[in-house]
Amino acid sequence: MSTKTVLITGTSSGIGLAAAVAAARAGWHTVATMRDTSRADALTKAAAAAGVADLVQVKRLDVTDSDSVTACVTEVVAEHGHLDAVVNNAGAGFVGTIEQHGMEKVRDVMEVNFFGVVELTRTALPHLRASGGRVITVTSVGGVVGQPFNESYCAAKFAVEGFMEALAPVAASVGVQVAVVEPGAVSSEFVNNVGLDLPALLAEAGPYAPALQGYVNHVRKSYGSHSAQTSEQAAAPVVEALTSETVPLRIQTSGWARDFVAVKLGDLDGSAVQTTMTGWLR
Ligand SMILES: NC(=O)c1ccc[n+]([C@@H]2O[C@H](COP(=O)([O-])OP(=O)(O)OC[C@H]3O[C@@H](n4cnc5c(N)ncnc54)[C@H](OP(=O)(O)O)[C@@H]3O)[C@@H](O)[C@H]2O)c1
């Protein structure tokens, strides 16, 4: 049997980079995509250090650029003859409440985190049907539990979860398995990439400033504590979802993430989540 091929988005850093190396270590031909291929250094070094450079191929794909999505998938299928899995990993956080920013920001967050996922999935599906493949999407615990000052980001991740949950039985009817992977805090480039100017955000927050300060304190604690996973730890379940015989729809990457999501899934009137989240603002 020929080597299976997976396409992963957002592999210049963090979970995507770690997943690309781990997928190659698991024997997959890994098409590691990123929107700017001049940022491939960290990935190529990590792949070489793991002894899998020959299985990792870097290609350009910006999830917000339709042409790049089509071009990349077409190229992969032309070169390898098949596509066996897609990992929708690219994503970007955004902090702020709705009175602090315009609608454009909400749309930008949806473009990267939701429409980008939909577009690549749609483009890959005919090839995944042909191979009996998988769609694995990195969402977040924030795709299940709405978190303060993350309205737009959580809305996008909720949208992805709803999209994938609805797609799963339909895709299964044509032999394609669908899964979402839900990390909690991961010590990747994620927080840096949000590009927060905290003093400016607090200065603009007006009546929301005390709650925002409480939220920032909470986040500092959770990313600084041992509860944050490494990118490698968060990537391991992604690769397991690629390689295991069967895959559940929803996978949490840690015990903390499992407990956190479990509260929401049993929270019929929403009060348990509201109590927890109010606690994050003190
Ligand atoms: N870190 C966490 O605490 C955490 C928690 C839950 C879920 N997640 C999710 O995990 C996934 C991976 O994030 P991470 O933690 O590994 O953060 P990261 O280190 O910031 O990686 C995000 C990746 O997405 C890429 N990306 C951003 N916009 C893109 C676009 N338009 N097209 C293609 N790629 C794009 C980034 O590329 P550039 O280098 O070009 O910016 C980067 O490679 C994301 O979906 C994120 O929402 C993260």
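^ NAP complex. The chain is about 50% helix and 10% strand. The chain has a mean pLDDT of 96.
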